[in-house]
Design goal:
By secondary structure, this protein is of the alpha+beta class. The protein is 33% helix and 31% strand. The protein is built from eight helices and 18 strands. This is Ferric-dicitrate binding protein FerR, regulates iron transport through sigma-19.
């Protein structure tokens, strides 16, 4: 992180996250080294104002030497053309200095974080369109859905059993250890168990926790014990991003919450609205029912890891409905 180009890539993205070129540059940089993802996440947290962990011992002098070396390597001024006015040059110099001072502060703060955590303290697993599984040091298993990012400490199982889901979905099969609770840190939400099997899905709207066996507590971070719920098998909690209430519901045995892992969709007289939601989640497509009179049609079928087109064809014939599929949109009418 002492290279100006690395700092620039992250800052350009944070300043304009909708810019496709900046997204691609950031993605390419992260792919170069898995440690770059940790650096990006730390810088993003600071950009959003999230606090960093305090260090008990921090080499202030050493970090300032690194900071000064970084500043010395940066240009002091930049002009866009030879004919630029003195006023525009002064404005540009101020913008560049402000920008690189923030970047230098980020270098210092991340140095502090790494002093506390130790170099490369987190192992990061990021999936694209594939699924993955992870055998943790304590014997617990993690099954990771596509388009997900999971991190855990390199000291996992020794003095902690703490894992983070930055985005996406994962299923946990946890080995029981009363002395060392297993915790999952998701955006705005913390989940704690002793030994169980459960699913955590972190989406843009919030976090969903579903329990297959055992007991799990789900709570908003830092909002008191009144914002906590104990979940039992078959129960799911929905916690909205930046929310304050927890919605829960029980599911019957044949549900598709874990279909992404079992690769099988099962519908037991399920209404078409439920079928549409499951298809959308499983195949990563948008499913619209334009004829609302079809909402209560029921489907009884099992699809073991079948292509979407085959599933839609069976639905057409079974329910005698019209379905079109183009690009990322499935329309039922």
């Amino acid at each position: 992180m002492n290279k100006k180009t690395d700092i620039d890539i992250v800052i350009r993205y944070l300043e304009d996250p909708d810019n496709e070129q900046h997204k691609q540059q950031l993605n390419d940089w992260i792919q170069q080294d898995t440690a770059n993802l940790d650096i990006f996440l730390d810088m993003k947290a600071m950009w959003q104002g999230d606090p960093l962990p305090a260090a008990s011992a921090f080499d202030t002098q050493g970090q300032w030497l690194q900071l000064n070396a970084t500043l010395d390597a940066l240009p002091s001024t930049t002009t866009t053309s030879a004919t630029a006015t003195a006023a525009s040059r002064n404005t540009r110099v101020f913008q560049m200095k402000a920008r690189y001072w923030w970047a230098a502060a980020a270098v210092l703060a991340i140095g502090l974080t790494w002093t506390w955590l130790g170099p490369g303290s987190y192992k990061t697993i990021t999936t694209a369109q594939n699924l993955d599984s992870l055998h943790l040091p304590d014997g617990s298993m993690v099954y990771i859905n596509a388009h997900s990012t999971v991190r855990y400490s390199r000291t996992f199982g020794k003095n902690n059993r703490h894992i983070k889901i930055d985005k996406g979905e994962a299923f946990f099969d946890v080995v029981k250890n009363d002395a060392l609770p297993f915790t999952v840190d998701a955006p705005d939400v913390e989940v704690e168990v002793l030994g169980t099997a459960f699913n955590v899905k972190a989406a843009g709207s919030g976090v969903k926790v579903f329990v297959q066996s055992g007991k799990v507590s789900a709570a908003y971070k830092g909002k008191g014990s009144d914002k906590k719920v104990i979940l039992t098998p078959g129960q799911e909690a929905s916690l909205a991003r930046h929310g304050s209430t927890i919605d829960t519901r029980f599911y019957k045995k044949n549900n598709n919450i874990l279909a992404w892992r079992t690769r099988t969709l099962t519908f037991d007289d399920a209404p078409l609205t439920e079928v549409a939601a499951a298809l959308s989640d499983f195949y990563h497509v948008q499913v619209d029912i334009s004829n609302q009179q079809l909402n209560d049609k029921k489907l009884l079928a099992t699809f073991p890891n079948m292509p979407l087109e085959e599933v839609l064809d069976i639905m057409r014939k079974t329910l005698q409905i019209n379905i079109t599929h183009k690009d990322n949109l499935v329309e039922i009418y």
